[in-house]
Known about the structure:
Elements: H1 17-20, E1 35-39, H2 61-71, E2 76-79, H3 84-91, E3 97-100, E4 105-107, E5 115-116, H4 123-135, E6 140-143, E7 147-151, H5 159-173, E8 176-179, E9 183-187, H6 193-201, E10 210-215, H7 221-229, E11 233-237, E12 247-249, H8 252-269
Parallel strand pairs: 1-2, 1-10, 2-3, 10-11, 11-12
Antiparallel strand pairs: 3-4, 4-5, 6-7, 7-9, 8-9
Helix pairs in contact: 2-8, 4-5, 6-7
Amino acid sequence: MTSSSDGPSPAAHRVSGDSAGRALEMPSPLSLAGTALFLDFDGTLVEIAEHPDDVRVSPRLRGLVEELSRALDDRLAIVTGRSIAALESLLGPVEVALAGSHGGEFRPGGGQPTEPLASPLPGAVVGALQAFSERHGGLLVEPKPFSAAVHYRHHPEARDALLLQAQELAATFDLEVKHGKQVVEVTMPGSDKGSAVARFMQLPHFREARPTFLGDDVTDEDAFHVARDLGGRGILVGAPRPTAASFRLDSVTAVHAWLETGLHAAAFKGEPPR
Length: 274
C-alpha cells in the first residue's frame, strides 16, 4: 500500500471504539512461548515506496523471519495484500507460511503448495480499472490473482471517482472493496486478512497459541479483530489512528528491532518454543 491514510473504507473494516479514543502503548517484549506471529509486509516489514516494485528489502529480513519461524515451531506467517509470487520476487523463496492477495492465496508452510481461497478476479474488472486509469491521468493499476489495486498517490483528485468506479464494479461482479493508504482495491469474496489468520489458527501447530498480528493499514483491521477474538493482540505500525489494535510500534525500523530483540532474548534465555 502507499503513503498516508485516507478517509474511511467502503469495505466493512471494523474499528474498536475503545482503541479509537486512547493512545496506544508500545507492546511488551516479544515472547516466543505460546505465540503465533503474523506479519504484514508493506509498511510493516518494508517501507512503502512510490511504486510497489521499488520497495527496499533489508538483506537481513529473510533470515530474520525464517529464524523466528523456526524458533516458533513454524507458528509464523506473512499475511500480505501482495500475491505470493510478487512477495517472493522481493523477499526470495522464503521458508515460512504465507497468505497472499489479502488471504486469497494460502500456503501453510515453506515448500507446500499454495491453496486458492477465492476465485480468480474476472478479467473484465482489470480492463475496466485500466480504462479508468487512462481517463484519469495514468493511475497505477496492480493486477493480482484475486484482486486488483489502483494506486492514486500522484492523482489524489481521482479518489472519489475511483471509489465510485470500484463500488460499481463490486456491485456488478459481486466483489468487495478495500480502501487503504492512497489505494483502492477490488477483491473476490474470501480475500481478507482476518480470514487468513483464522485459517492459520485452525492448523494443529497454531491452534493452542495466542496470535499477534502486526500491520499498518486499514486492510489489517480484520486481522486485528480476529487476533483479539482469539485471545491475542494486534500491533499497529506507524502513525496513530483509530484501530482495533491494542499496541503500537512507530515504524518499520521499530518492528525490526522488536522482532530481533525477541529472537535474541529467547536464544539467551534458552526459551522453549512452547
